[in-house]
Amino acid sequence: xxxxxxxxxxxxxxxxxxxxxxxxxxxxxxxxxxxxxxxxxxxxxxxxxxxxxxxxxxxxxxxxxxxxxxxxxxxxxxxxxxxxxxxxxxxxxxxxxxxxxxxxxxxxxxxxxxxxxxxxxxxxxxxxxxxxxxxxxxxxxxxxxxxxxxxxxxxxxxxxxxxxxxxxxxxxxxxxxxxxxxxxxxxxxxxxxxxxxxxxxxxxxxxxxxxxxxxxxxxxxxxxxxxxxxxxxxxxxxxxxxxxxxxxxxxxxxxxxxxxxxxxxxxxxxxxxxxxxxxxxxxxxxxxxxxxxxxxxxxxxxxxxxxxxxxxxxxxxxxxxxxxxxxxxxxxxxxxxxxxxxxxxxxxxxxxxxxxxxxxxxxxxxxxxxxxxxxxxxxxxxxxxxxxxxxxxxxxxxxxxxxxxxxxxxxxxxxxxxxxxxxxxxxxxxxxxxxxxxxxxxxxxxxxxxxxxxxxxxxxxxxxxxxxxxxxxxxxxxxxxxxxxxxxxxxxxxxxxxxxxxxxxxxxxxxxxxxxxxxxxxxxxxxxxxxxxxxxxxxxxxxxxxxxxxxxxxxxxxxxxxxxxxxxxxxxxxxxxxxxxxxxxxxxxxxxxxxxxxxxxxxxxxxxxxxxxxxxxxxxxxxxxxxxxxxxxxxxxxxxxxxxxxxxxxxxxxxxxxxxxxxxxxxxxxxxx
Length: 673
Hints:
alpha/beta; Rossmann fold; Signal recognition particle alu RNA binding heterodimer, srp9/1; 9-stranded mixed beta sheet; 43% helix; 15% strand; 20 helices
């Protein structure tokens, strides 16, 4: 499928562009000039502070050396100062030596209230003799009230006075100068807004328009040949393709063309790819949008976008309209804490209205994808809207093999690469996981400066996807390595001696992801159900690591490495008792409602449909099953102590053992009973 059609941005040579550049430059220049009036070296003084500077601040020498004081009163006999640091009043003889510290040199009156000026700051008493140590500082202050004694005070202190009258200036001009920056900024924003409107073909408020991407006239179509592992889904969708190619054939028979197809499945299984393949097979326009793109912070935008989307699609009918992650807007109404005016509900209501508004001549197929069909509104799923629900599940063994062949088609793989073995070693992988694994193998080969991709590269890539990258930088002590080796050996030996469990494929004590070691088993074939014997064997294998630690190091030296194993074993036991009815004491009953809340509001918590006595019985049964399987694992390890020791030494030496090396140490597995 081609890339979405987009308009290329072009720069126009219209005069408006040059006017815009000139206007923006002038605006910022004027703002800079106006804002630069208050220079960084101009300080603002309070009126009281200004008066104290006029009176003078001095260095007082003699016995009072290094004191900086303000002269507040002078008589024929003494001078009275206030220490500017301690704020204490000091009375000194009139002949005391003083040197200027702060001295106002001149002031400029701007109108009746504003005063600017300059004062000199002396760094030391000797600064009066050296002008380099005198710093001139500009200041500004305001008169809070008319002061009739100010001029006399300034004359007594020999301060130069300059008056600038503002009477000749118009107050209107001053007001304009004050608001001019805001006018210019507002004008620039207004100009940019209309410029954007004109560039959008006079369509303001384009946020209410649909964000759907149109795939049309592709260079290379995606067809069903590019999709593998979902054969049943392709068969279902082939009929939709026929509807799009020849709608008249069905309309003549009076048939109603299906309006919607819902693709249901886990993430990464190819739902979006299937929708594109339908468009490619039918050679029809394909509109794609995500459910989250409908809803914005503005009320009504979602519904408006839905209307615009369907109106646009009708112009290209017959076509396909694909909505990914439908659960973002299709959640069940009334399930939240809010009322019915929720924006998502309005968007959903509009989708329902638009799908009802189709007539038989409008061949628009709505294909939606979700991995949470249980939370969708029932009105969406009724016939006449999404008529068909197609399950797109994870691929089986043959499906994985086909997917791997598609992704390896244009890769330089070696002849010895066994795609069948790779497919067998990736149970539970989705199509996206397999594509990621092939890409990781390609990256690994490129990092090794190889020209082809080998089976070893694919093995490393699978381990990286399954268990995370190797963490060889994590340095473990000798005791930790030994403990990990015995732990993993416990898993391996217990699994090997239980024929009902899957064969071991690989064991390693190299840290990967968050684990210090890993034991990997691979099923011989794909299983869709498991019997009780298999599940009990799995619990025993999970507990084999802890059993080995306890047997070889003692109960006081068991480690935290078994935390994940115990968690999985506990969850498995509780599922056997509460979900699958495998308890002999409690019988084939389900305990506890398993419906998760759609979102908080419909159910504030899980529903408990059993008594406290039953809950205690469930706990006792789970504990008993765990203890029985732990004892089984411990007994197996006791009977195979020598094999465990050999396996541990091999792990400490090689760090990783493959299936053939494990079989060489442990021998053949016991036959199933």
